[in-house]
């Protein structure tokens, strides 16, 4: 058997190219995940027989798919290799999106959102575990945070493009089509630039590789082990935290375009501008929180969620006609809200760090595993909205963010020397 080489022996230019290819796929993972939220009011208007409640179910079907994708792709990555698994699910993302737009009925949309969800949940799980193995652990927070900032870039591109097509009266379906072809191109690029995990030892996996070389049985990891006594409490807490994240996101971001159109009565161009400017907060926020996490620890970022809760509250009570410079106040409040929310950009690496190397993919999968809890969020909001109004239902968001921030603070700190590192305090006492 040919001996594996270490990731440090792979040329830096190839590792950077691999990271960039993963970023491209990550952009469209983010884009195709949130596009259903943006086009929700347009779907209701354009397609007979599809109601606002039905569009909430599309998100639920997508979430069920993401849950299955995250949980199963952790196993597929272990069995068939991370590189092969990532290429397959990236291509599936683009292909299913193209098929989605060929139909206008509820059943096909629900089926395609489910399949897209499978690819998206799997993408996060495998992409995170691959990218953190490309470089040394000292830059892990920044790497995962920058990748997570693609979510913000996707929102900004989506909002700006939506404002553009609205200004030229182009069909809203253009927003959907742009999520189809590029993932197929990204999958093709990955074939050539991603190092094979079958031939290369990633950073952080040296001990497992050493055990394999010495003939010891290599631990493969399983969901049963994740729920065993040493890891059960952390696994359940991560799932609950991730679930609350989806509730907070859906209760605000998932219906904000509907809110701005129906409650605030803004036109399509204004909605697009507010949406795009707000998303910019997540873009630079992810970089800031990534640097904070690498310097002060992963748990410090929990305060970003508390900030998001405060900003969401102010968003609901701020008047519609107040301008700050040339920007509507709601755009500024949304920008700060998304800045705080982007503190979770480190979760992929952080959830992985909470577990040993052979459970790394399973740890990353916990983010989408939270959809066991969060998949019902849109329908819960619709249930409340039908018995009150949309704005009342959306007030659940700030409550969720503050509770989630406090829950985050209950998890262990994984950065040695971080502000919340217990070993540092114990050493000082000794």
TrEMBL record:
- InterPro entries named among the record's database cross-references: H+-coupled_symporters (IPR051084), MFS (IPR011701), MFS_dom (IPR020846), MFS_trans_sf (IPR036259)
Q: Which UniProt keywords apply?
A: Cell membrane, Membrane, Symport, Transmembrane, Transmembrane helix, Transport
| Major facilitator superfamily (MFS) profile domain span | 18-416
Q: Its topology with respect to the membrane?
A: Multi-pass membrane protein
What are the TM regions of this chain, as residue ranges? 16-39, 59-78, 85-103, 115-136, 143-168, 174-194, 230-249, 269-293, 300-318, 330-350, 362-384, 390-409
- Name its cellular compartments: Cell membrane
Q: Which PANTHER family match?
A: ALPHA-KETOGLUTARATE PERMEASE
The name of this protein is: MFS transporter
Please tell me the species this chain comes from.
Vibrio agarivorans
């Amino acid at each position: 058997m040919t001996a594996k080489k270490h990731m440090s022996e792979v040329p830096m230019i190839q590792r950077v190219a691999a990271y960039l290819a993963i970023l491209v796929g990550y952009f469209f993972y983010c884009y195709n995940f949130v596009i259903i939220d943006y086009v929700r009011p347009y779907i209701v208007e354009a397609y007979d027989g599809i109601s606002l409640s039905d569009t909430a179910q599309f998100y639920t079907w997508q979430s069920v798919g993401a849950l299955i994708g995250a949980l199963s792709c952790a196993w597929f990555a272990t069995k068939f290799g991370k590189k092969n698994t990532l290429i397959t699910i990236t291509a599936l993302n683009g292909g299913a999106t193209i098929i989605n737009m060929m139909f206008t009925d509820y059943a096909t949309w629900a089926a395609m959102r489910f399949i897209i969800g499978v690819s998206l949940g799997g993408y996060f799980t495998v992409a995170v575990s691959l990218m953190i193995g490309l470089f040394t652990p000292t830059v892990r927070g920044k790497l995962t945070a920058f990748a997570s900032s693609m979510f913000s870039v996707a929102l900004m591109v989506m909002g700006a493009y939506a404002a553009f097509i609205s200004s030229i009266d182009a069909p809203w379906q253009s927003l959907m089509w742009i999520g189809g072809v590029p993932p197929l191109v990204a999958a093709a690029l990955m074939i050539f630039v991603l190092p094979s995990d079958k031939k290369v030892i990633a950073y952080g996996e040296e001990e497992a590789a050493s055990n394999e070389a010495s003939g010891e049985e290599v631990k493969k990891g399983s969901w049963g082990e994740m729920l065993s006594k040493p890891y059960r409490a952390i696994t359940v807490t991560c799932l609950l935290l991730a679930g609350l994240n989806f509730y907070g996101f859906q209760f605000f971001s998932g219906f904000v375009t509907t809110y701005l159109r129906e409650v605030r009565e803004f036109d399509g161009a204004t909605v697009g501008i507010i949406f795009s400017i707000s998303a910019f907060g997540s873009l630079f926020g992810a970089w800031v929180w990534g640097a904070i996490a690498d310097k002060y620890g992963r748990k410090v970022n929990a305060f970003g969620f508390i900030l998001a809760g405060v900003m969401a509250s102010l968003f609901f009570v701020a008047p519609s006609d107040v301008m700050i410079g040339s920007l509507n106040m709601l755009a500024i409040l949304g920008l700060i809200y998304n800045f705080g929310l982007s503190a979770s950009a480190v979760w992929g690496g952080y959830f992985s760090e909470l577990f040993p190397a052979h459970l790394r993919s399973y740890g990353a999968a916990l983010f989408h595993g939270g959809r066991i809890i969060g998949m019902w969020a849109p329908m819960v909001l619709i249930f409340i909205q039908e018995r009150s109004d949309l704005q009342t239902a959306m007030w659940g968001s700030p409550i969720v963010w503050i509770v989630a921030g406090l829950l985050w603070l209950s998890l262990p700190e994984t950065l040695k020397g971080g502000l919340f590192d217990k070993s540092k305090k114990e050493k000082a006492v000794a």
